[in-house]
Write a structure and sequence with these properties.
single chain; about 140 residues; mainly alpha; elongated
Amino acid sequence: MLFSWIDITPAMWENFGIFSAMLIVALIAMLLWRRREERRMEAIDASHKLASWGLTKVAGIVSAYAVGNYIGKDSVGRGIRELIAEVKEGGLGPILRKVGWKMVENVFCKDTEDRKELERLLKETTAKVKIEDDAPVEI
């Protein structure tokens, strides 16, 4: 008997079980923490990308989420409330128009290939649709 000199008592098995359970819980907690931090880093990257496109309000909300700022000044809740107030006050059309122009200015106009594609699409659209200045808008 190689390990006959070790006397394993029930208390040792109990301690081994408790230690094993604590180790498993710690490993699971570390895994979940890592996933949380990776998600937050991706949110920060998305925030920077949105800011480079000129969408500063949405970028502010995403960056507040990334750092865990849910309540208070410059928080996720306040940013969403401001967006909802803007939609209620002016409607969705002006907001989408503003976002569309920001995307054109900050994304499509910076790259020559995108600019050519945008010009082609605008020419096709204006050739198909006759735009009247005083035409009523139906929603």
